[in-house]
Amino acid sequence: MLKNLRLDSAGIGEILKGPEVRELIDGLAEQVAADARARIPSSAPVEVRGYTTDRGAATVVIAHREAMGWQARTGVLTRAAGAAGLEVKAWQR
């Protein structure tokens, strides 16, 4: 039976900022972007923006003036994220 467990916060942080996680996140973001592109007009640019906070992260943006309407009506990005196997939750402050 486990009697003593210590988390290595610095080591975990190093892994979350490392190239393997970055590659995984970027790959999933590209999948979401590709699926979103298939659901909207081809004239609408879909951008993937990778960044790092305390871990590797990425944002998928539909850079078009009608994008919020597409999301509100059909959930284009939510559906694209679901198709990539991601769980989407409501954002809370």
Main traits of this protein?
93 residues; alpha+beta; two-stranded antiparallel ribbon; 48% helix
Give the strand order of the largest sheet, numbering strands 1, 2, ... along the chain: 1-2
Broad shape: elongated
Q: In this structure, how is the largest beta sheet organized?
A: 2 strands, antiparallel
Rounded radius of gyration (Å): 17 Å
Class by alpha and beta content: alpha+beta
Tell me, rounded to a whole number, the average pLDDT. Answer: 93
Q: Unreliable stretches, pLDDT < 50, 5 or more residues?
A: none
Order of helices and strands: HHEEHH
Strand content: 15-25%
Range of helix content: 40-55%
The tally of strands reads: 2
Determine the number of helices (DSSP H or I, runs of at least 4 residues): 4
Topology at a glance:
Blueprint: H1 9-16, H2 19-39, E1 46-52, E2 56-62, H3 67-74, H4 76-83
Mind explaining what this structure looks like?
It is elongated, with a radius of gyration of 17 Å. With 93 residues, the chain is α+β, with helices and mostly antiparallel strands. The protein is built from four helices and two strands; from the N terminus they run H-H-E-E-H-H. Strand 1 (46-52) and strand 2 (56-62) form a beta hairpin. Strands 1-2 form a two-stranded antiparallel sheet.
